[in-house]
Design goal:
The protein has 326 residues and is α/β, with parallel strands linked by helices. It has 2 domains: 167 residues, D-Maltodextrin-Binding Protein, domain 2; 99 residues, D-Maltodextrin-Binding Protein, domain 2. Helices cover 44% and strands 18% of the residues. It contains 11 helices and 10 strands. Strands 1, 2, 3, 4, 5, 6, 7, 8, 9 and 10 form a 10-stranded mixed beta sheet that branches.
Amino acid sequence: MKKTALPLLTLSLLTLASGAALANYPEKPVNIVVPFSAGGPTDKVARDLAEALRKPLGATIVIENVGGAGGTLGATKVAKAAPDGYTLLLHHIGMATSPALYRNMQYKTLDDFEYLGLINEVPMTLIAKPSMPANSYAELAKWLDANKGKVNLGNAGLGSASHLCGLLYQSTIKIDMTTVPYKGTGPAMTDLLGGQIDLMCDQTTNTTSQIEGGKVKAYAVTSSKRLTAPALAKLPTLDEMGLKGFSVNIWHGVYAPKGTPKPVLEKLAAALKVALADADFHKRQEALGAVIVTDNRVNGAEHKKFVESEINKWGPIIKAAGQYAD
């Protein structure tokens, strides 16, 4: 009996210590990994959320940008991180499209993460270089038809939001364009402003300021309804312009490594819901054309079901385009 008492006591103390650590979570800064470069649209969402999340979670929030390979490097880092609640992932629609784009991913989207909730949905805008002669979507459609085989469509890289929107747009209007991938949204926007590329379909979080400043020509939004942000309110939807059913929303969600303790997940989920109700967060996001999620997808289980449905939606479109990364 004496030989077993010490191990049993040690085990009990460890259990108590572990329980206390969970009860006191968080006791140090929480890292949110953004799998893209600083200054991009997903980074903007993350930094706005971090500010809203800091108070209800009771911790300092640190944004860590881990770009590369269409977001898969950052996602891999979180999938392999310690499941203790101190390393989270904020990712966009790439969570659902990467399985079709990348053949050698080091994680499984539906198996290697705990799903915490969907944050927002960000529509896209169809924009063009400032020297584009078309001044309306109807004129743009005629210009595209007259310039088949000559149009350059930029994007922020394989698997980016602008890449996905461009794929769907081309397949819908049945006009092939020369796709020009860049290493990020910034370089793509720079070349669009300079007239090196003709068109781009990108998130409102990245295009609103350019549209507001009159630096690009804007033709339509990809949401099902017109947007209310002042710089975007006059833009029609592509559905209105005859592309019935056309809808692309680049959503963002939050994830933890698989195996994160349930009490930690519950604290994170509760803090996330408070953050999503924050008035300042709403104001900042709505100014960029983003819509805060308020339906049941803010819950982990429904968030996961939604991502699975998006995998099923985008997989066939990507495979039909034959654009893969090894």
